[in-house]
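Recall the central idea of this unit: under ordinary conditions, the amino acid sequence of a chain determines the structure it adopts. In this exercise we apply that idea directly, starting from the sequence alone.
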Amino acid sequence: MQKSPFTVEIINIGEELLIGKIVNTNASWLSRKIVEAGGKVNRITIIGDNVNQIASALMEAISRKPDMIITTGGLGPTYDDKTVFGIAKAIGRKVELNKEALKHIRETCRRKGVKLDDVRRKMAYMPSGSNIIENPVGLAPGIMVKYKGVTIIALPGVPEEMKAMFNESVLKRIQSGEYHEVELHIKNIYEADLAPIIEEVVRSNPQIYLKSHPRMENNVPYIILHLYSNKKSRDEILEIYEKIKMKIMKLGGKIIKVVVGD
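Accordingly, the structure predicted from this sequence is:
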């Protein structure tokens, strides 16, 4: 019996995301890393810097019982950094000074030659029972706390910090599984003509993901077809690819590029 993939929900926090000031690259980067590790992202939510909104989004996510919830943003020293309080409210914990977090911040301040003042000290406060995730790039440590069987991870919104912390401390906690993909670049066939093939293949193989991305190049239809699964073996994915290729060629489509990834 095949093991179910490790499930994750992502909550990106920040008013700047909602007003279109910043593009949410954190969500796409995290999703890709999680899927490549054999996990499955079930939902991505964007909310503002509001304690009630953060708590509500977390409680809703917890009710769906993913293995992990990852939040990004709102861990800094400014007035609008409210993720800690949102997490605490969602899980019914007090916010308290975390000695390990304070130690991490003190050492980072010393290394960077900056003063450990009350503003920076604020980042050492976390929901009770939290473990810290060390930040090798910046100052604010991340948070890891378990609640009702769900692991809640809070990371900074700064992409460089988020990526480093995820790679060093979070990725290894995501249960590994199989992930295989094939990307086909196709010319001379329209998406409407390809649609019946996609529907037939997915109906026969419900454990795969098959998505077309059409565009026009020099007035010629061009489609990138993405095939992936975290429940099929590499050989099974390649066998499905061969069947798709034959069907496309019968319709007059020309496959100009194939990328096989793991």
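The mean pLDDT is 93.
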